[in-house]
What does this fold into?
Amino acid sequence: MSPLDDDPGLVGAVVLGLGLVLVAGMFVWWRIIDLRYRFRERRRERALRTREGTAALAGADAALGGEEHMDPEAVQTAVAAMVGSDAGAVRARLVGVVNREGVERDRVVVHVETAGTDELWTLERDGDGWRRLAVEDASLAGHHLATALVSRPEDDVAALRDVATVETGAADALGTAPERFAGLEVGPDVGQALLDLSVVDGRFAPAVVEAVVRRAVAAWAEAVDGDEAPFRAAAAPAAVTELLTGGDVEGRTRLVVRGPQVLEVVPKALDLAATPPLLTVEVTIRAVHFRQPIVAGATGSSILDRPFTDRWFLGLDAAPEVPWRLLRVRRGVPALRR
It folds into this structure.
């Protein structure tokens, strides 16, 4: 005889437990369906806004006699040619656009769907056409949907603000020689020390440091698949290698970051006696990131979408566009809890 036959209460508890498991399972299933629906709706809305913005831009360029370099139809034609006729029907929807000064810096993000493809393609300019710069699974499109549309260079408000902040700070500089800072003391509060020093040298202003870090992170993300020149202008070779390879000295893998957002920049140490003066900061970034194999037999990693914190060592620099240069990086500082 089963124990359940002797204990009706136990039978009730088992039935109740199974019922709770069933309800929980149904809730999780419903939640997944709801999230997928919301994600699709966000993607459709984003595609519509992007198309409207680029169409308006192309029309304005045509009216002024300029090049219709952001024409959505031209982008879709380019995608269809890349996919090829063997793939069957192709559905291509714009979900992101970045139009900065200089056609070579233009980017568009296209959601590409075929019978066997559901991907996000980032395209860059290639003469009068487009070429594929990066490919991502559509399930990782969240960072594209959260990125501001830049239909015209003047729409890139955050980047323009950082440029102005850096230029303002660099305009009020004492130089980089340690003797220029002789007699200046740094207290235990590094953030306060930066504020105090910014009175005599604008490069020490916390807002300038944060702007420099954001620009370096943006250049890092661009260098993953595109032009490395801006990143190499902002960072020393050792730091470039560390961030692009993730510390893989053998060069078998690379570190991929998508859609990075700087969450926090925390000053940790300031050495005015160093040559050049050295500022240490902890930088917390949220990004889709993973290690990708680039040679046969190499092992990658799972794809993560969560904050991570690195320690950056910044050297004071005389260049007005890069008042603080990233000299080296220490990876693996535990991510902040949020």
Q: What stands out?
A: The mean pLDDT is 79. The CA atoms of residues 234 and 325 lie 6 Å apart. Strands lie at 91-98, 107-114, 117-126, 129-137, 253-271, 278-293, 304-316, 324-333. Residues 8-63 form the longest helix (56 residues).
